[in-house]
Amino acid sequence: xxxxxxxxxxxxxxxxxxxxxxxxxxxxxxxxxxxxxxxxxxxxxxxxxxxxxxxxxxxxxxxxxxxxxxxxxxxxxxxxxxxxxxxxxxxxxxxxxxxxxxxxxxxxxxxxxxxx
Length: 116
Hints:
Blueprint: E1 3-7, E2 10-12, E3 21-25, E4 31-39, E5 46-52, E6 57-59, E7 67-72, E8 77-82, E9 91-99, E10 104-106, E11 110-114
Parallel strand pairs: 2-11
Antiparallel strand pairs: 1-3, 3-8, 4-5, 4-9, 5-6, 7-8, 9-10, 9-11
C-alpha cells in the first residue's frame, strides 16, 4: 500500500518562503510524474507545478518565477521551494504521484497560509 506524507506547510508573512515536501512510502512502479496541486476555499483544485521522470517541468502562470519543484528519486520525495509568497497563495497543497499507467496517488494535504 502506498502512502504519501506531506510536511512543511504553515503560516508565513507575505514575501516569505516555505519549502514543503512530500515522501511516498511503499512501492510505486513506473513512476511518471510528481506534482503539486492546491485548493483554496470555494475554489476548484488546480495544478501548481509538476515534474516528469525525464525532469520536464510545468508551472502554473501564477507561480512562475516564484516556485520551484525538485525531485529526489532515491528518497521518493518531491519538494517545492515557494518564494515571495502572496496572500492569494493561501490554500491546501496536495502532492500527486502518477504512474505511466495513469494511476494517481495523493497526499493528505498541507495548509499554507500567507498573512501578516
